[in-house]
Amino acid sequence: VHLVESGGGLVQPGGSLRLSCAASGFTVSLYAMSWYRQAPGKGRELVATITSVVGSTVYADSVKGRFTISTDKAENTVYLQMNSLKPEDTAVYYCVARGTWGQGTQVTVSS
To answer: 74: buried, middle or exposed (CB in 10 Å: 19+, 13-18, 0-12)?
Structure first.
């Protein structure tokens, strides 16, 4: 199991980013996939989860209506589309599946 995140960066408040998590060693559509984040000085927070097979989604209250988690079976990749970004969304974002964490990608929201 190997997860590689990408797509982070610096964006102004109100902007958008799309994070990608490329998976290898398993099929993403067969397992629950999650995005977590950790802001400076804070603990890790579950941001979003997409379940296997049915593809149901769950979001943290802080991102509902702004973030969307999805999977691409052909690419074996999980995405996190982040819109209307706020400074408080600044964090390292991690892709998690089957007990394995990716290396994380930094998202900074600042003017």
So the answer is: exposed
